[in-house]
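Service request form, structural biology core

Requester: graduate student, group of Dr. S.
Request type: structure prediction, single chain
Budget code: on file
Notes: please return the result as structure tokens.

Sequence provided:
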Amino acid sequence: MRSSRWLSFAMLVVLHLALWLGAESLWMRPLLLMHLGMFLMWQPLWRGESKLRTGGAAVIVAMSLIAMISLNWWVLAFWASVLFALVGGRVFAFHARWQRIYYLLVMAYLLAILVLFIAPNLFALPGLGEVMGNLMNVGLPLLLLVMAFIPVEREQAGSEQAVDFIYILLLFTLLTLLVLGSLAFMTLGKIAYLDALMRTMFIIAVMLLTLGGLWNPRKGFTGFQALFSRYLLSIGTPLEIWLERLAEAARQEQNPEAFLTHATGYLTEMPWISGLSWVSDRGHGTLGVSSPHRIEMSDQDLSLTIFIRQAVSPTVLLHVRLLTQLLGHFYQAKRREQSLREITRQQVIYETGARLTHDLKNMLQSLFALTSVAQHQPEKAQPILQRQLPVLTQRIEAVLAKLKVPEAQDKVVELPLATWWEGLRQRHPHRDLLWTVQKGPDMRLIPAPLFDCVADNLIDNACKKRQNQPGIAISVTLEMEPFSLSISDGGNAIPEGIASQLLNTIVSSEDGMGVGLYQVARWAKQSGFCLELSENKNGKVTFRLSKAK
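Core staff response, request fulfilled:
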């Protein structure tokens, strides 16, 4: 930054010395050649560390020789205008205050040297010798002295090379309009140069204020900003078509790699892109041909290298980076969608396995109860086995069907309430339960697998509790209005810390209680029901299954 600053200052000093000596001096052309060399070292268009090739060096030497041979006031006016536009296109990139002040003073110097020294000599205007003498001998040297003492501030690395070509074009056009407009006023209006210069500056100021007012929308007018932005954003490229194709590929392709293949194929159709290559943790690919000009982008695990046919302007570079960022965001979104699908699939497998495990557990417990009856009460075993074995056979067949076709887990098997209630009573005739029903069960349809799972889990938990607390009563109550199924026991209350988490998460316990209740609570919620611990006190612990509100 410091070397660039002093190069620009030295460049102005050499230019001022060459103009001060005049066209008749033998030293003017060598000084201007030195000024041109300093400009090439200072110039903000290419980085100074870039290697200058033979062809580029030949072009620079040829243009320098042509300029020195055909040197006149028109060439000097054009060169001062170019310098003014280049500095003006760079000054807006600086954020440090003193840096901006310095380059604004550079613009003021170049503007003064153009309109108050070069232009009067260009138009051979009489009567301005004293003004030009004071300017070159006193005014501009003092301005250069002030610029020399402006502090050098550290600036962002990107600002050192930032140049806005739109600003350069606009500033060059305005400066050309200022000089040629002054000449037109002098020729047509027969007025002095300074008067013509002031009139031209006033007209340009009014024009800029008018355009500034029309730039933003006012009172229903859309403004020039929207019209101008359309050309800046498209810059003659099929940007909108590529965005449409990108969105279409995102809708059609579910696989991230397939989407990336289609999207990169569309990207190579851009006129300035000759090829690209991409590398991710799942593969890589190459399209088109490589070139010396490249743009490298990375987004998490995706690395993208785009080969450009030739060096591009900052505006096109901004568009390329925007396109690649959009591509990266869409690709990462596809990766997240795939991860979510895998997580969802694993969750479905887990829930299906958990439900089937509890179904098997309940059936094994029923089978264990039947074998206990057959061992201890042989005379009662025959009728019980005749009633229960067909039911167990149906439930085993249902579990086997779910294992063969996991999608069958989502199918709802409905039974009349009266039929289901009678089957539940027949499955637990030996457990000493108190069965209570309000007004008798009707024939409404209920999801039988859900009710079976809830009832079997709650009854089994209550019977295990009775083993530790002998003599407690267990009741199963069916209420019709409002409809609910309740299982209660007369044992001790569940501890508050466990009760608050019992149906919301998996609760660790010695007998395993908590996993089954968590699963059936989730199943009930998915089926439009609600399983809750309605009462929890010593002598009365009640779980209730009811319609969700």
